[in-house]
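ok so i was messing around last nite and threw this chain in just to see what happens. nothing serious, just curious
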Amino acid sequence: MPRVLTLDKSLSVLESVFACKDGIGTRALALQLDLNVATAHNIARTFCVRGYLRQDPQTKAFHPGIRLMLLGRHPSYIRSLTLSAAAIIDDVARTLNESVLLASMDHGRVINLKYTPSRQALRVHESEDMSDHSYATAVGKVLLASMNEHELDAYLLKTPLQRFTPRTFCDPQRLKDELKKVQLQGYAQTRDEFSEGLSAVAIPVRDPWKTVVAAIGASAPTVRLQRASQIEDILRPLQKAAADIEQQWQENQLPRKKTPPKTKNASPVRAK
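result:
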């Protein structure tokens, strides 16, 4: 039992550090987890030695380490995202009767994880790898908007902005302004940007630590997705689907609430 408790404490320390984007110090960590300060420090330092955490030499705050990052980018994580969200994507596609797509960013590439086409005769078809035109798609804009400035500059350096239609964002600064708008309003929209007559809307999907890890979007011929009311009718089911996916990831990835351990050698009380 002591080994199990130690492992539980260690994992709690790891998860708490990962949840703090600005890092967390030993005392705050101990207070948050109701641990002895020395215990919290020893666990965190052990993770630092193994490369799972790192400690800032000036602030002494703990941050996620490179080894933890590498484990998090294991090739199977994309398959896990897809399997857990597949049924939800199919369900919202049936509800909307439009094509619905779940996409994620993998090493700078925008990947189609799950695509369910509309049952209507006039519908949209999506490619597997959207990297070279992601800036002209709604899901791509959501994912690009989640990048920091350095990551976005690296993407723009590697990805020439081609003009697919007169409405395509080909100027880097204009695209950056568009992505800031996406961040503020919480969703992305395209109208005839990648292909004439094709429009889409998309919203972010976040992991249990509130980091954007995917985007869910619906695409349709522009005639069915151009008025504000039409966009609103698409956004509401997408928001529910994103919330359902996030809830599923929350339940699967975060530890369940602890239940009090049973008392050893306890015997039932008999009525006299």
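not much to say yet. Residues 132 and 160 are 8 Å apart (CA to CA).
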